[in-house]
Amino acid sequence: MINPIFGKIAEQILSQSIAIKDDVLYSFVLDALAQEALTEYRQGEFKDAKFGKGIAKQRISEVRGDKVFWLNKVDASARLKTYWNWVEGLQDYLSEYFRIYLERTELHFAVYPIGAFYSPHVDQFRDQGNRVFSLILYLNKDWKPADGGQLRVYNDDGTFYDIQPIHGRVVCFRSDQILHEVLEANKPRISLTGWMRRDAFTL
Ligand code: OGA
Ligand code: MN
Predict the structure, then answer these.
(1) Is residue 171 within 8 Å of residue 151, measured between CB atoms?
(2) Edge-to-edge, what's the strand order for the sheet holding 131-138?
(3) 134 CA to centre of ligand 1 in angstroms
(4) Residues pairing with 109 in the sheet
């Protein structure tokens, strides 16, 4: 049976290039994922996030202070596989809905330490169209507006609105369309971020 949330996400992306859905997973799954991220983080497994690849990297003047830990499905924990399966269900749904080929979804945990932010950017590298949809799951229990770390999304006319990075919220948007930034976090901010891509994995 197809998850009814997928249809809602697709409709929102169609009409406004971005979708927001709350409570997409059981709370205990979210808690386990947050715990997993923190465990890897404390063990020093996270790396400074990079801005792109090769030549593209030099041309992009983004500033970001988050640290990331790339994941792979083969070694994933049971909880992470639960989410990964949900993501692949969504990927298949969006692929059919938009009649677009999607090969895979890449995922990483991201931690913004206190004071970290990510300046305005678009997720698709300028010279490559491989990232089609961006997908972020927030894992921050009891997050308050004063904790910062909002996802700020810009409209075409330069106005913007802020999305709170609250526990169990998923944001999905067109990687080539949405200009966005992450405001400074006043508390460590955890997310599970991914991109649905057209291309296969290469080393
Ligand atoms: C990114 C990004 C937004 C967020 O990782 O490219 O923009 O809210 N993340 O974490
Ligand atoms: Mn981004």
Answers:
(1) yes
(2) 18-21, 170-174, 131-138, 189-197, 104-112, 67-70, 47-48
(3) 8
(4) 69, 192
Instruction: Give the Cα separation of 71 and 16 in Å (integer).
Output: 29
Give the model's pLDDT for residue 200: 85
Q: Which residues of the chain have pLDDT under 50?
A: 54-60
pLDDT tens track for 73-92: 999 999 999 999 999 999 99
Which residue's CA is the closest to the ligand 1 atom numbered 6? Answer: 123
Cα 89 from chain centroid (whole Å): 16
Residue 75 DSSP class:
T
Residue-level pLDDT at 59:
41
- Cα(193) to ligand 1 centroid in Å equals 7
| Domains located in the chain, CATH noted | 4-49+57-197 (2.60.120.620)
Protein residues whose CB sits closer than 6 Å to any atom of ligand 1? 110, 118, 123, 136, 151, 165, 180, 182, 191, 193
Strands 170-174 and 104-112: unpaired
Q: What is the pLDDT of residue 54?
A: 47
Q: From CA 158, how far away is CA 31, in angstroms rounded?
A: 36
Give the ligand 1 atom nearest the CA of 149.
8
Nearest to 137 by CA among 31, 64, 42: 31
